[in-house]
Amino acid sequence: MKSPCRIIAAGALLFALSASLPAIAGRGNAGNPGVLPPQSVPNGKTYGEWSATWWQWALGQPADVNPLLDQTGANAAQGQTGNVWFLCGVWNTSGQADRSITVPPGKALFFPIINFMWISTVPEDPQTAEGIREIIKPPADAVDKLECEVDGVALKNLAQYRTESPLFDVTFPDGDVYGIGPATYGPSMDEGYYVMLAPLSAGKHTIHLYGNMPEAIPPYWNPFSVDIMYHITVGKPGK
């Protein structure tokens, strides 16, 4: 049975206070070596399909171990599977976090710089991509600053990484971040700015993310920014 609540989410703040990847590691695009092009299909999914999978991962973890609520990176491995490792924003009032994490070797990294998502939970909510797009497109249009640095090198032309997901459903676990109980909700849809990095070399790396949506967009979106620093250790193959 559908919950009477409506759910919106942003990659930074709760309720919007709310093929072989290494083989193309050196190609990059638009002057961004190591970044997979936004038109590519890494590991069998488009960027938009990966953004849907990202939300299913992020909202599918219980609140007590959810990486979105983690300031330090202690829960970064929660729910991670396959050849792609997800990084995330943080759900707090500042939008800031400083995380230290360890990533297994050979994992591509996929993450939003800033993103917006709507989950339809009652029949009167929009049930089509067109209807949901009217809600999530305005805040994505309003983003006025995007930054991503990998090992101190700024990525270029980040607006080209704007991504729109297909429709998808989200299954919440016991103890979910919204406290509404285990259930599956949808249709959902996301729009945001995402990056897929080919696997990093073994050793120490940093990734810094910053995105800003400066103006309130009634009735759902308040201004917010996300400012995340990742200190990443990639293990050696076979370890």
Question: How would you summarize what this structure contains?
Answer:
This protein has 239 residues and is mainly β.
Secondary-structure topology with pairs:
Layout: E1 7-10, H1 47-59, E2 84-86, E3 96-103, E4 108-119, H2 129-142, E5 145-150, E6 153-154, E7 162-164, E8 168-172, E9 183-197, E10 203-213, E11 224-234
Parallel strand pairs: 2-4, 3-11
Antiparallel strand pairs: 1-4, 4-9, 5-6, 5-10, 7-9, 8-9, 10-11
Task: Report what the structure shows.
It is a single chain. With 239 residues, this protein is mainly β. It has one domain. 11% of the residues lie in helices and 33% in strands. It is built from 2 helices and 11 strands. Strands 1, 2, 4, 7, 8 and 9 form a 6-stranded mixed sheet that branches. Strands 3-11-10-5-6 form a 5-stranded mixed sheet, covered by helices on one side. A hairpin with a 2-residue loop joins strand 5 and strand 6. The longest helix has 14 residues. About 7% of the residues have low confidence.
Helix and strand composition category: mainly beta
Order of helices and strands: EHEEEHEEEEEEE
* Number of structurally distinct domains: 1
Give the rounded overall mean pLDDT. 89
Rough shape? globular
Strand content: 25-35%
Characterize the largest beta sheet: strand count, sense, and whether it forms a barrel.
6 strands, mixed
* Low-pLDDT residue spans: 12-28
Residues in helix, %: 10-25%
C-alpha-based Rg, rounded: 17 Å
Question: Number of DSSP strands?
Answer: 11
Number of helices: 2
Spatial separation of the terminal alpha carbons: 46 Å
